[in-house]
Amino acid sequence: MAALARWCLRRRAIVIVLWLAAFAGVAAAAAVTGSAYSNDYDIPGTDSSKVSALMERRLPDRAGDSDTIVWHTADGAGTVRAPGVERRMTAALRQVADLPGVASVTGPYGAVSATGPYGAVSATGPYGAGDTGRLGESGGLGEAGDNGRISADGHTAYASIVFRKPAADLGEAEVRRVLDTVRTAAAGAKGLQVEMGGAGAGLTERTGPAHLSEAIGVGVAAVVLFLAFGSLAATLLPIATALIGVGTAYAAIGLLGHAMTIADFAPMLGMLIGLGVGIDYALFIVTRHRKGLRRGLSVEQAAQRAVATSGRAVVFAGATVCLALLGMLVLRLSFLNGVAVAAALTVALTVAASLTLLPALLGLIGMRALSRRERVRLAERGSEAAASQGLCARWALYVERRPKLLGAVAAALIAVLALPTFSLHLGTSDQGNGSSASTTRRAYDLLAEGFGPGFNGPLTLIGSMDGADDRMAFTQLSETLRTIHGVASVSAADLGGGGDTGVITVVPTTAPQSRDTSDLVGRLRSEVLPRAEEGSSLRVYVGGLTAGYDDFAAVIVSKLPLFVGVVVALGCVLLLLAFRSIGIPIKAAVMNVAAVASSFGVVVAIFQWGWGSELLGLGRAGPIEPFLPVIMVSVLFGLSMDYQVFLVSRMYEEWRRTRDNRTAVRVGLAETGRVINSAAVIMIAVFSAFVLSGDRIIAMFGIGLAAAVALDAFVLRTLLVPALMHLLGGANWWLPGWLERLLPRISIESEGEGAGDAEVGAEGEGAASGPVAVPVPLPEQPSEGAARAGTARSPVP
């Protein structure tokens, strides 16, 4: 590590130019090739997957993308059949049909353009009649004919519009022209409301400047860093390092999308994680570097020492986060594989930037890493041996005196916050969960009010038949379905597809995200369809929005125990090797699970229960995305491991020196508490800012990760963990002798590595093993000289 830092310092111009060139080159390549992100949630082998495959292969004319134009007349303004309304909307729909990029339009007043024998192509989501470009963004499905497109009360009507390109390939300008055209029809018409729903319409709702959330998060992080350092130059270094690393990764993910399946939210998720950990990792190294400068080391010596010690902890922490993210590969889901690789790539590049670009920048700014006041004091007094006792030291003493009370309070708080997790309902949000100010949400609500809540998420039953008997059984099935509880309407059996494929559309009485709709899907699959298939070669599969969501969630839940087990076991093995203790890994696993459960409780309360979701601009309450637990578990286990390593490594060093558990816990908490809290504030700011992204999924990640980091840093690591370690005493560090002999020795931080001269060597002996070691004189703490001698005798393995 010291050799790498020395090379980067002496060739800092080359290092900086190489990083800038890499960033510019990858960004240019990504701009030229374009993006190729996917929203394919399809899981081969499930019923919903079979429905999609059969539709595309046998009924391609019904597998296209479409949006829905909805108009509504208020009470007192007549119905949608009024001559004035009909005239306005017919003219508008004809104008839409002539717009570039529009293939066809079919409305309730007669065909605007030919769309085949079944009317407009209907959008039923990626598991029904074709992918709408994003899971859950469906404009609704109605029967062909005028009456099927006008509500029973006559106040709501809709038309289906089919674009020539998939929704993912549409430009915002194309869709906005459609929306503006139909809204012109409502201009000056009292009581007439026109909205538009569907995947295409969703493109028009990207509000706010690009990357506003990232800018706000970085701005708050800069304020925290400036308050901690008091130096503008030192403040800018962690931010510049993180931005270069994350920016390069962001562009690289775009290129990676051409080689594997990458979800459209993966770049934003990678940026969210990368900014948080990237700024924090650079913070740890810069803090150690500043400490070296204050102790009289030269710029080069201090930077080498910082990378040789804190740099090792950064590598260990970053590798842990990457391994936790790559643990998603054990699920063998292509959709999550891309997310895992994208996020891990971002973390890896931020670590690389912290170890190479950051030392070069430290050499560039020289002594300006210290504030003006610190430079003056250093010139007047020489090196500083220790810092004054502060809040963290007083807090460490307070926890030591009242471990039972404080531990009980922390445990109770975590338990209360985790309670909502027991009501977790996995599903996928749709445009009904959007902001009430969005046209897609208003279109969704108008369709639900006019045609029933199940209208926005119909079920598609597709039958594979062989012979007349199968066709008769399938026809009888449509009659049977009308008698099933929870079914609002059933279309007649459509025996298209050359006679070997039939389609029935079922509209539930409940909304797509309702548990009752999921129960209906389960009854159809387990009870109704097996009876219809009995004694024949007929095979019927259930697709549609809810069916697809349920299939995806079921597969995730079935594999979640394996995934969590792999991640927990990996973390425990790493901590066992690092700290040579049975108790430390077990406590870490329990704390990590507690952090995950409590953060999920916050997510459930806000997004599923709707506590404040509308006020925060996050839309209406709805289910939690099925993949959220997997991704959050991997990220949170990695981040929690960071804090565990930074806290316990200092405690472990003190334990090896004194064999006094109380002193080890107190000193470790006192000397690492400030940097852990500063790092946590930065992460919380970055993660929370992503609520402003306008994307519900990213907002879920942002709030979940921010809550987890806050609880982990301020409740678990600085309260519950030290309280438990005080209560357990020497048992914290117990390891069976036979296991001690078997385990290899690894070093998180190498004390004295890279000491090119006696002064650096002395600094190495006296440095704490944590990410930052600001000596705090406590009443029971040995003198600095004793600490140096003790540490020299018992280096961290």
Strand content: 5-15%
**In percent, how helical is the residue content?**
55-70%
Flag low-confidence runs: 114-146, 750-797
Output mean pLDDT: 81
Total beta strand runs = 9
The radius of gyration over CA amounts to: 30 Å
Major sheet: order of its strands?
3-2-4-1-5
Rough shape? elongated
How far apart are the first and last residues' alpha carbons, in Å? 16 Å
**Oligomeric state of the chains in view:** single chain
Concise synopsis of the structure shown:
The chain crosses the membrane at residues 215-232, 239-259, 265-286, 313-335, 341-365, 405-426, 552-577, 589-611, 631-652, 673-691, 697-716. The protein has 797 residues and is an alpha+beta fold. Helices cover 59% and strands 7% of the residues.
Walk me through this protein's architecture.
The chain has 797 residues and is of the alpha+beta class. It is built from 25 helices and nine strands. The strands form two sheets. It has a five-stranded antiparallel sheet with strand order 3-2-4-1-5, sandwiched between helices. It has a four-stranded antiparallel sheet with strand order 7-8-6-9, with helices on both faces. Helix 2 (12-33) runs parallel beside helix 8, helix 9 packs parallel to helix 11 (334-365) and helix 10 crosses helix 20. It is elongated and about 90 Å long. Residues 114-146 and 750-797 have low confidence and may be disordered.
